[in-house]
Amino acid sequence: MRTARITDDMFARIPALLLQGRSRAEIAAMYGVTLGTLAVRCCQRGISLRKGGALKRTTLPKRTNLTLPLSDGALKSLSEAAQAMGKDSTARLASDLLEKIASDGLYKAVLDEEAA
Prior knowledge:
Layout: H1 8-19, H2 24-31, H3 35-45, H4 72-84, H5 90-104, H6 107-110
Helix pairs in contact: 2-3, 4-5
């Protein structure tokens, strides 16, 4: 069986499918993956494949270092802003900005996109 990509939307539907009485094997077949692949992917996301499929993990994934491609102009602007704001580094300012965007769900506002 060819391994298909399971999307976020597909993962979100798993608890409802389990509540409807679908088996793990049926869900795997619907998504075009093996039962083992479905089990591993759900485990990685903290999704239980027991009836109800509730999240069983409340801890966040471990932190990783992230490399972001930024233009020279953006880096210069961040550096100047960090200095003016008394931040200890450009990376600290970028991290603080991303933390605030994530915690307040400001993605569309920052990107100047209309809310859905």
